[in-house]
Write a structure and sequence with these properties.
The complex is a heterodimer of chains A (728) and B (782).
Chain A (H helix, E strand, L loop, with lengths): L1 H20 L5 H20 L5 H24 L7 H28 L19 E7 L4 H12 L8 E7 L4 H4 L4 H21 L2 E4 L6 H11 L5 E4 L5 E2 L3 H5 L1 H5 L3 E5 L3 E2 L4 H6 L8 H15 L10 E4 H6 L10 H11 L3 E4 L5 E3 L5 H21 L10 H12 L4 H17 L8 H23 L7 H22 L13 E2 L4 E2 L4 H23 L4 H24 L1 E2 L9 E11 L2 E10 L3 E7 L11 E6 L8 E13 L2 E8 L4 H12 L3 H10 L5 H26 L3 H4 L3 E2 L3
Parallel strand pairs in A: 1-2, 1-4, 2-3, 6-9, 7-10
Antiparallel strand pairs in A: 4-8, 5-10, 6-8, 11-20, 12-13, 14-15, 14-17, 15-16, 16-19, 17-18, 18-19
Helix pairs in contact in A: 2-3, 2-18, 3-4, 3-18, 4-12, 4-16, 4-17, 5-7, 5-22, 15-16, 15-19, 17-19, 17-21, 19-21, 20-21, 21-24
Chain B lengths: L1 H12 L5 H5 L47 E3 L6 E4 L2 E10 L1 H6 E10 L9 E6 L2 E7 L7 E6 L8 E10 L15 E4 L5 E4 L24 E6 L9 H15 L4 E6 L10 E7 L1 H4 L15 E6 L6 E6 L3 H12 L12 E2 L9 E2 L5 E4 L8 E3 L3 E10 L10 E10 L8 E6 L2 E7 L6 E11 L6 E10 L3 H5 L12 E3 L4 E4 L6 E3 L2 H7 L10 E5 L4 H18 L5 E3 L11 E6 L5 H7 L5 H4 L13 H11 L4 H17 L22 E9 L6 E7 L2 H11 L2 H4 L6 E5 L4 E5 L5 E3 L6 H14 L1 H25 L5
Parallel strand pairs in B: 11-12, 11-13, 13-15, 29-30, 29-31, 31-33
Antiparallel strand pairs in B: 1-10, 2-9, 3-8, 4-7, 4-9, 4-10, 5-6, 5-8, 14-15, 16-17, 18-27, 19-26, 20-25, 21-24, 21-26, 21-27, 22-23, 22-25, 28-36, 32-33, 32-34, 34-35
Classes of the chains: A alpha+beta (728), B alpha+beta (782).
């Protein structure tokens, strides 16, 4: 009853606001109202008011956005009898309306995200049996060894925990392939992994045919196991020790719970972060999703399965016949089916696994293409807004998640719309300079402020636009093909173990330079027209300014596709852990400074050693977490650096037995707290102005870097096109 | 053209010497084909059988002997200026059947600016859509007259459309600015229809009242002679008769004059109206028509003394006279709920203005515009539309012109098309592409800010720049190649607009006679005394209201203001006699009762605080900070028309009004004591001022300026001053509807712009709270 009252009150308040913003007031009134609203929002933001004030600020923004929509709809469309203007004008209108709709959906999702849940540790003595699935297709043994070792090392009663390696690269189909090379590789892989699993006390499972890709593989695993719960880890996602303890407890609370999802934390930067060098100081792209959006979805019981780092209930999956495999994003699809059957999900906002993400721009695009295409398939086959069984908030949430991937269309339109005017003199947006100031500018400012309000410390200004732009160029064809041929896209495993040793242009960078060139041309045309056509300089300046924004983004994207070469193959994680370093049967006091999946840097206190030859064998002795016995890991010294009494030794692991992988996993993955701390260190809201200035500076630098790569690397691009494998 | 030159020559030398020989030194058209007959009338000879049309000699109607012949002046507003490169005006002249049959010639007198190039400038005249003249404009030295034959059968009984159009080009200058130097002035005194004989003067049926016509200044006057003028029972019938006459004649500048005993001499544009019992009228009209003595009679009688027609309204008693008055007035009466489709304007411009109440689309052809091709640099064309008195959309509203036009490839970008509403700029559309273009239903938003109740004139002006004009080689101004075309398929689209009566709103009263025109019950009218001047002023004012309302306004006289209560009412009289509550309700300083009047000393009454303050401000401009603020203020004013005073939450309260000593007439409006009635005051320091001021004010040019809450007329400077409405109350005129309220709110908030911002902030705060409690209660929470 009280709820109904609140809903009615809210509806009346909304209707009043709608009635007010759809009044056909004059421009002066609009200007003053815009100024008032922007001022209010700025004050609320400066005061860092939260709670109700946050929603009020968003309501303010919404009012201006609605006024813009009203005005845009009623006054700015070109006359329909001027088709040359109307068609592009209407496309631009649609693109803007899409953006507004996405804003509305995301407002719904994230206007009051659920606060991070307090730790819900599993009750002692009440541990359900868990099958851990690590599906693999082509990842190499060492990577798998780390993951399996980390999974095996999770704190959980051993009799309740079964780790499965689900190998799709060694299936009977592959081992008897007509392709001789494939056949040989599969056989060798089958052999190697079986041994590895035996060493690590992990169950190895493969199947006859590679049907339904990852979903089929997981279902095969389900058929061979009986655990009450399933935990799924991608081959490169190694769990922390407390993963299960932090997640299984929720299943005890809610018998209708089918999923506990945790964030994906990445040890290495994505190509954008790597090439822009922002990994250490700016929150990663996916933190907006895992830090805010999943929490927002969780409020509406709509947080969905992301393919890895999650625990699921077998009973629920059995109801839908296991993991769904209609789309190539089986994870979200499975979640939507189970939500529709009345099952619940929970999101735990704490990184409990660490993984790798694609290092090269091309594989990054490949991964995003899969997501985009998969979401298009879900949109097509499941159409969430009409999906029976989902609650209304869940429908909106899933619409938000799937429609998001249509962004390549509006991005493309926003990119080319100013060119319609600058090159072809089309007037696709009829507005005067004053109206532009009173409506469009206010809308843009408010939009940026709302974005900053919603995602401030998780997403800096203009970064969303940059990510969307760099993906759009290659995602647009992928999305179109998925829309036209929804059954065609097939599952492609994203390569995450590449690295870039030599600075080079990405092999798919050419369109970015072409677009950049076109936009530069448009800039020249802008300047030319401002001088030669002074009577419409105002319009030219506005459109030219828009084009300049596009140019800044496009320039920054040149930096993104200019891959920096890196000496270190994988990202290092700062650990600072006491140990002892063994050299020639002598033990020295030491601390492990940082670690990666391949090696570690150790500070050794020893006056006497001096510089050591490369490939000298050494030993690291330390206590793994949750154990009192010191263990020894053999390493090979790669470099040394003497600084007074301290010698800094860079070394590479030399795992000889399977147990050594467990030690490596312990060094890197055991402590999930360090990941949380690392993420926190990057989170900080630079604010709209500082963020914008910073971004423009970055864009300028990246433009020059991109152009420098372009002119110096043209000759060597063929050589660079073969991505170097780092882990060999 | 040649012919008119001849006329001048003939007048100048008054001799019978060879016209041709005398003419040659004055002939300025060497390029004219030598073989063209110099004396041929422009109208084709066939079809005109009247001897007067023989193209042989100087027409006789300019001979002194013929001055007595009956003429009808035709210019509705006095001298007519046709300015710029292209202008036209169409209006109608009402002719009696006799006049239509006997009208033989249309005489035109005009003078033009010295800058008008005769080779390329033309004046054309159409009567009833038949071109009767199209000739070069070449009369810069003095007024020249042309007598144009009217083919038999061209004139019709009733309304006859006359169209005058000029296409003028500058002799040397190609700039847009120079087009303002182009004018042709049609002289009212020399522009008339002349008739074969004097019988056309007589008026027969009551319908012929419409043929009252104008004098050489474009004025129309009904001279009432009423011996029993001061009889209390006479006032209402007389006011009704004058209103009926006003509606019938429907001329733009009508006035009424009352006299007990003086019959004025007949004059053009005037009509004498005798009202009284036969006995009373005997001194003025010895021979009343047969039957008039017994029963009521209303009709024309020829005054034997002057031979001119006199309208006689008589009856045995005032009851009978009232019946006679009804026979004149009844046809003008319409049932009140009928909504007018048009406001009649055709006596001064045709077609009538369409009366727009809601969403309407009108083609330009319906609005009287024709497709025009234009080769000059400044094209201007206009049309009229009318909006009701409860129009309330001037702050937010925008009408749309869907323009069909074309411009040639020679037209340079930077040219523009402007739209003016009642002379104020309302929109500008730049032409931004070169190479010519065809505009198909190009929407032009026209702000309704300058719209006012009643008739509105909307002008479209195209300013066309070309390379040729920039160079301006000799002959450029006369180039014939069209640069611009306006097609009559263009449309004017009036959207639904907010409709609610406002009080006070003199503009509404002036435009459509609101609210008195639609009063169900008679409107009380308070006159301080019943004498010639007061009645004249009252009749003139009520006549104006009746014309605006399209029907006579029912009135009743009240002896005491106390009887008025809260009804709509009109107060007419000298200021000193006005009841005290009128001053209170109209917010007029009561001191004006004693002090208003011509200031004998003529000294300025002190220094105006606001102007003085502004002057000091501009004098003391300086200091970086205040300069910045000033710059910002100016910028906001220039670009967005936002001033500090427009930033307001609600209307500011208005101050007491004190008429200036120069003012000779005051028209004011205010609410009745309880706010439901609409009171209008027409006052002057003296009865004479009242009469003269009202007559002057009733002229169209001034009447259109009536607006705000107080309007004053200054006799000395012949100017009208308006005190704008600041506080007003709403008077619902429409059935309650959400959409109308929405538009009313839009207009009110667009006027009080801070209120919108505040309202938005408040509602959004509430929404924010509502959302917070909603989200706090829905979904998961922890």
């Amino acid at each position: 009853m009280r709820k109904a009252g609140i809903i009615i009150f809210w509806a009346i308040a909304s209707l009043c606001v709608i009635a007010l913003v759809t009044l056909p007031i004059n421009l002066q009134t609009q200007l003053i109202a815009s100024i008032a609203v922007v001022t209010f929002m700025a004050v609320i933001k400066i005061l860092r008011a939260e709670g109700t004030w946050r929603l009020t600020a968003l309501a303010f923004g919404t009012a201006i956005v609605m006024r813009y929509v009203y005005w845009r709809t009623t006054s700015t469309l070109p006359p329909i009898n001027q088709l040359e203007n109307f068609i592009p004008g209407f496309l631009l209108y649609l693109a803007e309306m899409y953006s507004v709709m996405m804003l509305a959906l995301s407002l719904f999702v994230v206007s009051m995200p659920l606060p991070s849940r307090p730790s819900r540790a599993a009750s002692p003595g009440n541990y359900p049996s868990v099958d851990v699935f690590v599906p693999t297709y082509n990842e190499d043994a060492q990577l798998l060894a780390n993951t399996l070792a980390a999974a095996k090392a999770m704190d959980y009663p051993a009799d309740k925990l079964t780790v499965w390696l689900l190998d799709d690269g060694g299936t009977l189909q592959k081992r008897t392939s007509a392709n001789l090379l494939e056949d040989q590789l599969a056989k060798a892989r089958h052999q190697e992994l079986q041994i590895l699993c035996a060493d690590l006390d992990v169950r190895y499972l493969t199947r006859d045919r590679n049907e339904h890709a990852k979903a089929g593989n997981l279902n095969n695993g389900m058929q061979h196991s009986q655990g009450e719960l399933l935990a799924v880890f991608d081959a490169d996602h190694a769990p922390a020790r407390d993963f299960l303890l932090e997640t299984v407890g929720y299943f005890e609370d809610d018998p209708k719970l089918f999923l506990v999802q945790t964030p994906h934390f990445f040890l290495n930067p994505d190509p954008v972060e790597r090439n822009l060098r922002t990994f250490e100081k700016m929150p990663s792209e996916n933190e907006m999703f895992y830090g805010i959006i999943q929490r927002g979805l969780d409020k509406w019981n709509a947080s969905f399965f992301c393919g890895s780092a999650a625990v699921l209930r077998r009973q629920a999956l059995n109801q839908t016949g296991g993991f769904s495999g209609v789309s190539i994003t089986e994870d979200c699809e499975t979640a939507i089916d189970l939500h529709a059957k009345g099952w619940n999900s929970v999101y735990v906002d704490r990184p409990l696994i660490a993984g790798l993400q694609p290092a090269t721009f091309a594989s990054f695009i490949g991964q995003r293409s899969r997501w985009a295409q998969g979401m298009m398939q879900i949109l097509r086959f499941k159409f969430p807004i009409l999906k029976r069984g989902l609650s209304i908030p869940q429908r909106l949430c899933y619409m938000s998640s799937t429609l998001f991937w249509l962004f390549p269309f509006p991005r493309t339109i926003f990119l080319f719309a100013p060119l319609c005017y600058l090159f072809f003199d089309l007037e696709i947006f009829t507005a005067s300079g004053g109206e532009f100031l009173g409506y469009t500018l206010a809308y843009m400012v408010v939009n940026l402020m709302m974005q900053n309000y919603l995602y401030g410390s998780f997403r800096w200004p203009w970064i969303s636009e940059l990510y969307e732009y760099v993906q759009t160029v290659h995602l647009l064809p992928a999305v179109i093909s998925a829309i036209l041929n929804p059954r065609k896209p097939s599952f492609k495993v994203t390569a995450k173990d590449e690295s870039v040793l030599v600075s080079r242009l990405s092999e798919i960078s050419r369109p970015f330079f072409i677009i950049f060139g076109v936009l530069v041309l448009a800039l020249i045309v802008t300047v030319y027209r401002v001088y030669t056509e002074p009577y419409k300089a105002d319009v030219t300046l506005v459109v030219g300014g828009w084009n300049l924004l596009n140019l800044i983004l496009a320039g920054c994207a040149l930096g993104v596709v200019s891959e920096r070469g890196e000496l270190s193959a994988t990202r290092r994680v700062k650990v600072t852990r006491r140990c002892e370093f063994g050299l020639d049967d002598k033990w020295y006091s030491a601390t492990i400074d940082d670690v990666s999946v391949n090696g570690a840097r150790v500070n050794v206190y020893a006056k006497t050693i001096g510089s050591l030859p490369v490939d000298t064998r050494g030993l690291i002795r330390f206590k793994p977490h949750g154990s009192n016995i010191e263990e020894i890991l053999p390493v090979a010294i790669r470099n040394t650096q003497v600084d007074g009494d301290i010698i800094t030794i860079g070394c590479q692991y030399l795992p000889e037995v399977a147990h050594h992988h467990s030690l490596v996993a312990d060094l890197i993955f055991a402590n999930s707290q360090q990941w949380t701390e690392f993420q926190r260190s990057r989170r900080g809201n630079p604010g709209l102005f500082r963020g914008t200035f910073w971004f423009f500076g970055l864009a300028f630098y990246q433009t020059t870097r991109g152009l420098a790569y372009f002119f110096s690397n043209r000759g060597s691009s063929d050589k660079a096109r073969k991505p170097a494998r780092a882990n060999k | 053209m040649i012919r008119s030159l001849f006329l001048i020559v003939a007048l100048l030398i008054l001799s019978g010497t060879s016209l041709r020989a005398q003419n040659l030194p004055f002939d300025m058209t060497p390029e004219r084909p030598a073989d063209s007959p110099a004396l041929v009338s422009p109208t084709p000879e066939q079809g005109t059988n009247t001897p007067a049309s023989q193209p042989v000699t100087v027409t006789p109607d300019v001979e002194p002997a013929e001055v007595q012949a009956f003429q009808r002046y035709i210019l509705p507003n006095g001298n007519l200026g046709l300015n710029g490169e292209f202008e036209n005006l169409t209006w109608s002249v009402y002719l009696t059947p006799q006049q239509a049959a006997d009208g033989t010639k249309l005489n035109i007198g005009y003078q033009n600016s010295i800058f008008v190039a005769p080779e390329t400038s033309r004046l054309s005249i159409e009567v009833n859509n038949t071109k009767i003249a199209d000739e070069a404009i070449r009369s810069s030295e003095s007024i020249s007259e042309r007598s144009l034959d009217l083919p038999k059968g061209l004139l019709k009984p009733g309304a006859n459309l006359i169209r005058m159009q000029t296409s003028q080009r500058h002799r040397t200058d190609c700039s847009v600015q120079s087009t303002y130097e182009l004018w042709s002035n049609i002289d009212a005194e020399k522009t008339y229809i002349s008739f074969a004989d004097n019988t056309s003067r007589s008026l027969q049926s009551l319908d012929d009242i419409k043929a009252v016509g104008v004098n050489e200044e474009g004025r129309t006057r009904f001279n009432f002679v009423v011996p029993a003028l001061e009889q209390p029972g006479a006032t209402i019938p007389l006011m009704r008769l004058s209103q009926g006459l006003a509606v019938l004649a429907d001329m733009p500048n009508q006035s009424f004059s009352f006299s007990r005993n003086t019959m004025t001499a007949p004059a053009p544009g005037e009509m004498t109206v005798l009202v009284g019992t036969p006995a009373e009228l005997l001194p003025y009209l010895p021979s009343l028509p047969i039957g008039a003595a017994g029963s009521a009679f209303a009709g024309f009688v020829t005054d034997p003394a002057t031979g001119s027609p006199v309208l006689v309204v008589t009856g045995a008693s005032w009851q009978a006279i009232q019946a006679a008055i009804e026979s004149i007035v009844a046809p003008t009466e319409t049932a009140a709920p009928v909504r007018r489709e048009v406001i009649t304007t055709q006596r001064w411009r045709s077609p009538d203005a369409p009366f727009l109440f809601s969403d309407t689309r009108l083609g330009f052809s319906q609005l009287g515009l024709r497709t025009e091709e234009f080769s000059g640099r400044r094209f201007r064309s206009d049309f009229t539309i009318a909006v009701p008195s409860d129009f309330y959309a001037s702050s937010y509203g925008e009408a749309v012109i869907l323009l069909d036009a074309a411009y040639a490839s020679t037209v340079l970008p930077g040219s523009h098309i402007d739209v003016y509403v009642n002379g104020s700029i309302a929109s500008t559309v730049p032409i931004t592409s070169s190479g010519g273009g065809i505009l198909r239903h190009l929407p032009i938003n026209v702000t309704m800010r300058h719209f006012r109740p009643g008739v509105n004139t909307i002008a479209i002006e195209a300013i066309l720049a070309t390379k040729d004009d920039a160079v301006c080689a000799p002959g450029t101004t006369g180039l014939e190649a069209p640069r611009f075309a306006l097609f009559d398929t263009s449309e004017f689209h009036m959207p639904d607009f907010a409709r609610i009566g406002q009080l006070p709103n003199l503009a509404g009263t002036a435009g459509t006679g609101a609210p008195y025109g639609r009063n169900g019950t008679p409107t009380p009218i308070f006159m301080d005394r019943i004498d010639d001047d007061t009645l004249s002023a009252a009749a003139t004012f009520l006549g104006r209201l009746a014309v605006g309302a399209g029907r006579p306004v029912a009135i009743e006289t009240v002896a005491s203001p106390a009887l008025i209560g809260n009804r709509n009412a009109i107060f007419i009289g000298s200021i000193s006699q006005m009841p005290q509550m009128v001053f209170t309700q109209m917010n007029i300083d009561e001191a004006s009762r004693n002090t208003w009047g011509p200031d004998p000393g003529g000294q300025a009454n002190g220094v105006d605080t606001q102007t003085a303050l502004d002057e000091w401000r501009s004098k003391l401009r300086g200091g970086l900070w205040s300069e910045q603020i000033n710059a910002l203020e100016n910028w906001a004013k220039q670009n967005f028309d936002i001033t500090l005073s427009s930033l307001r939450f609600a209307p500011v309260s208005e101050s007491n009004f004190m008429p200036s000593s120069e003012a000779s007439l005051l028209v004011a409006q205010g609410p009745s004591p309880d706010g439901t009635g609409n009171w209008t005051l027409v006052a002057a320091p003296t009865g004479k001022d009242l009469h003269e001021g009202m007559v002057a004010m009733s002229a169209q040019g001034f009447w259109e300026q009536l607006g705000g809450r107080v309007t004053t007329y200054e006799q000395g400077t012949k100017t009208v001053q308006t005190v704008p409405v600041t506080t007003f109350s709403f008077l619902p005129t429409q059935p309650a509807s959400f959409f109308n309220y929405r538009l009313i709110a839009a207009n009110w908030l667009s006027t009080n712009i801070l209120s919108y911002a505040v309202l938005l902030v408040i509602l959004v705060l509430i929404l924010g709270l509502a959302t917070a409690s909603l989200l706090g209660n829905l979904g998961r929470r922890q």
